[in-house]
From TrEMBL:
It holds the Pfam family MAPEG. GO terms for molecular function: glutathione peroxidase activity; glutathione transferase activity. The chain crosses the membrane at residues 12-33, 136-156. It is a multi-pass membrane protein. It comes from the Eukaryota. The keyword Transcription regulation does not apply. It is found in: Membrane. This is Membrane-associated proteins in eicosanoid and glutathione metabolism. The lineage of its organism: Eukaryota, Fungi, Dikarya, Basidiomycota, Agaricomycotina. Keywords: Membrane, Transmembrane, Transmembrane helix. One of its GO terms (cellular component) is endoplasmic reticulum. InterPro entries: MAPEG, MAPEG-like_dom_sf, Membr-assoc_MAPEG.
Length: 166
């Protein structure tokens, strides 16, 4: 059995990828905590009951903020994996994609980013149908861009391997 060692060298700009990943990891924490406190929903309850949310707008806003957080957690594995892989070949593009996704997710979740006097977009308004309005769609577009970048880079790199006879 022969063991072959390979050097693993990160691109010079790879630390930029960490900026995008760090932002992803902290995205919704403050928003959910803020709404939990305002709605007086105690741990370990994940959501306020449907009856409470129907009569208390703060509890409905908390439920929506919590659901937005859960939705974000559902897409984080894809975003992190795509950012990490794409960052090995194109660190600036990976960072731009991750930060754009974070920016879109902020508009998706946090009503304070919409019109202050009359919040019309974002999940945390308590109106779930408003979650994809306006700049919130940037999150989905960015995630698709990251995945597209991974597919393109994978095809290019596999062609190089094939051309080299590997």
């Amino acid at each position: 059995m022969t063991t072959v060692g390979h050097a693993f060298v990160l691109p010079a700009n790879y630390p930029l990828v960490g900026a995008g990943v760090s932002a992803v990891l902290l995205l919704n924490f403050i928003n959910v905590v803020r709404h939990r406190i305002a709605a007086k929903v105690k741990y370990p309850a994940v959501y306020a009951s449907e009856a409470e949310a129907a009569t208390d707008p703060k509890k409905m806003q908390f439920n929506c903020a919590q659901r937005a957080h859960q939705n974000t957690l559902e897409s984080v594995p894809f975003v992190l994996a795509a950012t990490a892989y794409l960052g090995l070949f194109h660190p600036k593009a990976a960072t731009a994609g991750a930060l754009s996704w974070v920016f879109g997710r902020i508009f998706y979740t946090d009503e304070r980013q919409s019109n202050q006097a009359n919040a019309q977009i974002n999940y945390s308004t308590g109106k779930a149908e408003k979650r994809n309005a306006g700049p919130a769609v940037l999150g989905s577009i960015s995630m698709l861009g990251l995945i597209g970048g991974v597919v393109y880079t994978s095809v290019v790199e596999c062609r190089k391997l094939y051309a080299a006879g590997l």
